[in-house]
Structures are given as structure tokens and as C-alpha cells.
């Protein structure tokens, strides 16, 4: 935890009325950064110390909290705001730009220490919040590079962005009148991939990739990282919700088979033959669509009805489907002759993409999938409250550090509000 210098101009009580400084105070108080500070101070040892490590670090955090899009913007704020300088521990003039450039390089050289800050706060939140990590959501967001595009000269020079590349995301849907709509978004830069707690809307894992990296590839990488570094988080996760960008048999299988985490991931239509339904197993009068909705067909009239959901049998790894006539009191002329009048069991292995532990045709699935929007709100906070819509960052390493500091700040504010008796404000990033 950062050591805060002794205040002579004001007290912490006074800060409560100063809004922005109160937000910074929360971060400085609750960010577990002592190990990083000791490492950087040991590295400096007897070197010049006009700009102490802790003061430099505190001003970097201030830049994140106050949404400064550049170092020059932060320096201007420090120059005019004596209270902010004192809070950050600056006892001399504002550090010049090159000092910040060198300090950021040192931070990137010790990124594992900064990553440890993030991981520590995730563990602290899991101890403070009931059911933290029980429902997870995953998604990726596009982030433009400050560079406008690829340069013909690929040699790094500190100004052009030689890491970023081009990404494209396509959205499709159907209007109420049945017409198809299509929207394509293209950008030059990166993707930020997040796994968040869907109840509290707080990040638990992340990665930063080039724009061209598919969401599912980054998703597997984050699961791999969690398996290695924080297996307890996957062990307590009951569901993981994601859009169809994560529709992948291997992902669905590993979540349930390895971790007993129920995947709640939207599905793409992979049927290329134009069929709306197909026969289920070897049952003549039962069909299903690509989304897992199961239908029975009356042996007498051929009338199609959606079968009722009967739940998931974990010990058998099967989904139960019940006769709609019995379940809903519907008159079915062929019920006496129907071979499935007593219901059916569908093994997940019939098709692991279509049939999942939570029935895709159930209200439970729809309710769990709705939690996916939590990660969209976290992405929105990155854009609006942490300046990712307007930034001056070039290079993947710099973008990773920017993302890491923003997410650490987000978690530190949440911890501060919880520890100080304001849990209802844990998602508040404003004064």
C-alpha cells in the first residue's frame, strides 16, 4: 500500500468535499502496491532521487483517476494543483516528460509486480463479497491505436505503432419484418478481453491482443491463465456467459468437464443445408433446431409442439424433455400412441455445442445469458471513465500497462468503498 505523505494544507475529512481527490485517496489507500514500491526503490538504490518512486507512482495513478489522456495533460494538472502535488508526495517541481517516459519503462520491466496487485485485489474482493465469482461474463472490446494505420516502415522508432493491426467485427440480425440487417466495424489497434464478475461488474481476468486475434483464442488463453494462477476462481464459478464469438466446442467442454462451470454461450447457425430442424437421435417424431429447442410431432395429426424443459441430470449428463400435453394440459390426439409420452433424455454428447448443462430453450438459460451485459458495462466504464475512447497510446506493451492500471484503479475504488461501509458505491467511478 502506498505511503501517503503528511498533510499540512488539509485533512482527509476535508477531502470528502473535494470529490476527485477523494477518489484518488481511495486508490492510494487501498491499492496493495507495497511490493512494487520496494522493488522499484531497491532498483534505484543510491541513484538520483529528485522524483521519488512513490511520488511518481502516485502521480501516475492520479492520471488514471482524473482521466488524463496524455502525460502532458497530467503535468499541466500537477503544475496548477498544489493540493494534488502534496497528496501525491511531490516536494519539488513537476517531473518533466522524459522522467515519466523512463518511469513507464521501469513499470513495464516489472509488469509481473503490477499484475500481482490486480490478482491480490481480486482475492480480497472474493473474501469481502458474497458469491463473488459465482457468475462470470466474458467479452472483448475494440480499442483504436493512436496511430492511424500501418506504416510502410516497420522498424520501431518510439512514435509509430508497429504492434497494432486491423480488426473487423460483424453483427447480423433480423428486423421485425423479417429482413436481415448487417453491420461491420473495422479498426486499427487492439482488443481488450475481459472476464468479469457479472453480479458486481468487476474484472477478474483480462488480456490485451492485436485487433485481429479472435475472441475465442483470447478466451482460451485467459482460461489457461486462470487454471494456472487462480484455479480457485474457476472452481467457484457456476456459469460463464458469452456471445457467439465464444461458440466453440472445446470451450464448452472444458468449462463443464474440467471445472463444472456451466457455459451460457450464444450459438451460431452452423447448419449449411437450409434445414430448420433435424431429427433427434433415432426418435421418429422428435426434432430440434440449431439452438437446442426440441419439438415433438403428434403421431396422429403431425402437429408440432415444443417439448417442456425437465432440467439437467448431472449424474447422467442428460437434459430431460417432457411431453407438452401432460405438462400443459394440452389435448393431443396421438398421446396414447406416442412413444415419448413419458418424456425423453438427451445426452450432452449428442451435440456438445447445442445441448449444454443449462437447456438453451429454458428461462434459466435466458436469465443467465442476460448477465453477459455486465462485461459491456465494464467496457463502457473503460471508455467513459478511463479515457480509452480518446487516448494517445501506441504499442501493445503500453496499451497493456494502460489497461492494467485502469483495471487496478477500478478494483481499488471498489475495495475502498466496501471497506469504508459504502458497498452500494463499489461501481461508482465518479465523485
UniProtKB/TrEMBL annotation:
Classification via InterPro entries: Transposase_11, Transposase_InsH_N
Residue segments, region Disordered: 147-173
GO biological process, one term: DNA transposition
Pfam families recorded: DDE_Tnp_1 (PF01609), DUF772 (PF05598)
Lineage: superkingdom: Bacteria
Start-end of Basic and acidic residues biased regions: 151-170
GO molecular function per UniProt: DNA binding; transposase activity
Domain (Transposase IS4-like) ranges: 154-408
Domain Transposase InsH N-terminal: residue ranges: 23-104
Protein name, per record: Transposase
Species in which this protein is naturally found: Salicibibacter cibi
Taxonomy of the source species: Bacteria, Bacillati, Bacillota, Bacilli, Bacillales
Amino acid at each position: 500500500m502506498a505511503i501517503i505523505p503528511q498533510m499540512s494544507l488539509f485533512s482527509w475529512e476535508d477531502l470528502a468535499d473535494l470529490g476527485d481527490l477523494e477518489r484518488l485517496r481511495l486508490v492510494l489507500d487501498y491499492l496493495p502496491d507495497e511490493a512494487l514500491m520496494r522493488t522499484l526503490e531497491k532498483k534505484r538504490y543510491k541513484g538520483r532521487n529528485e522524483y521519488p518512486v512513490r511520488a511518481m507512482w502516485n502521480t501516475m495513478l492520479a492520471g488514471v483517476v482524473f482521466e488524463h489522456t496524455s502525460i502532458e495533460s497530467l503535468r499541466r494538472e500537477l503544475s496548477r494543483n498544489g493540493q494534488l502535488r502534496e497528496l501525491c508526495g511531490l516536494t519539488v517541481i513537476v517531473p518533466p516528460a522524459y522522467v515519466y517516459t523512463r518511469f513507464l519503462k521501469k513499470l513495464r520491466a516489472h509488469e509481473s509486480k503490477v499484475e500481482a496487485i490486480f490478482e491480490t485485489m481480486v482475492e480480497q474482493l472474493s473474501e469481502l463479497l458474497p458469491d463473488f465469482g459465482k457468475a462470470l461474463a466474458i467479452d472483448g472490446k475494440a480499442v483504436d491505436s493512436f496511430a492511424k494505420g500501418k506504416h510502410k516502415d516497420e522498424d520501431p522508432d518510439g512514435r509509430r505503432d508497429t504492434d497494432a493491426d486491423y480488426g473487423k467485427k460483424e453483427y447480423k440480425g433480423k428486423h421485425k419484418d423479417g429482413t436481415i440487417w448487417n453491420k461491420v466495424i473495422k479498426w486499427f489497434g487492439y482488443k481488450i478481453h475481459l472476464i468479469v464478475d457479472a453480479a458486481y461488474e468487476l474484472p477478474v481476468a483480462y488480456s490485451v491482443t492485436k485487433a485481429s486475434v479472435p475472441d475465442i483464442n483470447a478466451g482460451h488463453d485467459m482460461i489457461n491463465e486462470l487454471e494456472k494462477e487462480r484455479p480457485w476462481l474457476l472452481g467457484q464459478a457456476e456459469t460463464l456467459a458469452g456471445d457467439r464469438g465464444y461458440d466453440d466446442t472445446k470451450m464448452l467442454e472444458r468449462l463443464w468437464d474440467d471445472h463444472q462451470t456451466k457455459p451460457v454461450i450464444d450459438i451460431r447457425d452452423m447448419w449449411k443445408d437450409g434445414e430448420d430442424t433435424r431429427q433427434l437421435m433415432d426418435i421418429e417424431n422428435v426434432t430440434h433446431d440449431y439452438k437446442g429447442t426440441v419439438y415433438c410431432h403428434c403421431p396422429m395429426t403431425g402437429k408440432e409442439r415444443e417439448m417442456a424443459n425437465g432440467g439437467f441430470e448431472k449424474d447422467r449428463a442428460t437434459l430431460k424433455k417432457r411431453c407438452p400435453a401432460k405438462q400443459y394440459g394440452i389435448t393431443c390426439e396421438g398421446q396414447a400412441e406416442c412413444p415419448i409420452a413419458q418424456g425423453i433424455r438427451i445426452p450432452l454428447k449428442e451435440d456438445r455445442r447445442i445441448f449444454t448443462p443449462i437447456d438453451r430453450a429454458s428461462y434459466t438459460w435466458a436469465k443467465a445469458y442476460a448477465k453477459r451485459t455486465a462485461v459491456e458495462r465494464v467496457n463502457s466504464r473503460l471508455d467513459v471513465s478511463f479515457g480509452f475512447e480518446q487516448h494517445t497510446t501506441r504499442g501493445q506493451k503500453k496499451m497493456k500497462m494502460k489497461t492494467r492500471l485502469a483495471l487496478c484503479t477500478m478494483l481499488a475504488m471498489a475495495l475502498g468503498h466496501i471497506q469504508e461501509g459504502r458497498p452500494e458505491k463499489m461501481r461508482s467511478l465518479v465523485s
